[in-house]
Amino acid sequence: MSGGDLLIVCLGNICRSPVVAEVVRQRFAAAGRAVSVDSCGTGGWHAGHRADARMREAALEAGYDLSAHRARQIEVSDFQRFERVLGMDQANLRDLTARCPLALRHKLGLFLPAAGIDDVIEVPDPYYGGPEDFRHVIALAERGADGLLAALHA
Questions:
Q1: How far are the Cα atoms of 10, 57, 58, 95, 126 from residue 49, in angstroms, in the given order?
Q2: Closest CA to 140 of 106, 97, 111
Q3: Over residues 128-143, mean pLDDT
Q4: Active site includes 125?
Q5: What is the architecture, at CATH level 2, of domain 4-153?
Q6: Axis crossing angle, helix 53-61 with helix 131-153, rounded to the nearest 10
Q7: Catalytic one among 27, 40, 125, 143?
Q8: Under DSSP, is residue 153 helix (H, G, I), strand (E, B) or coil?
Q9: Helices and strands per DSSP (H, E), number in the chain
Q10: CA gyration radius, the chain
Q11: CA 104 → CA 3, 8, 86, distances in Å?
């Protein structure tokens, strides 16, 4: 991982990708590293909506403010604009691969493996879970952000 622009992608852009993007943004800023981070979903049914209230609450408890987030769906131009497009799970990656122009597929990956984490491959969707599931996603986001920072120094 060399830095640059990152796009973090989940299904609806209301739980995982907004918090991962915010965690990465804050961790990189605290380390004095410049990175532009955005998030989106493969689906568009939540476009314009705020992050899920349960995720906003869990994120705020952990020190991350998602109040400005508004969901959006991935656009073809995103594949050109971002250096890396990282999905939260295999289903996201399959959707991204199907939409991404062939010449740009080298930009695609999964967030945790891209961060050098190999004991967990996917960030699970907490939508149908309880508060502990949302906190677990935040913990994985923090591990992943720290892994991306470490990869930059490697």
A1: 15, 16, 18, 21, 17
A2: 111
A3: 98
A4: yes
A5: 3-Layer(aba) Sandwich (3.40)
A6: 60
A7: 125
A8: helix
A9: 6, 4
A10: 14
A11: 17, 16, 13
- Residue 78 catalytic? no
Set 10, 15, 40, 100: catalytic member: 10
Amino acid code (one letter) for 8: I
Task: Measure Cα distances from 59 to 67, 137, 143 in Å.
Answer: 10, 10, 15
Q: Which of 138, 134, 143, 147 is nearest to 22 (CA)?
A: 138
| Residue extents of the structural domains in the chain | 4-153
Q: What is the DSSP letter of 132?
A: H
Reference 107, options 144, 134, 128, 80; nearest CA is 80
Q: What confidence tier does 154 reach under pLDDT thresholds 50, 70, 90?
A: low
In percent, how much of the chain has pLDDT > 70?
Answer: 96
Catalytic residue among 15, 16, 25, 38: 16
pTM: predicted TM-score of the whole model, two decimal places:
0.96
SS3 7: strand
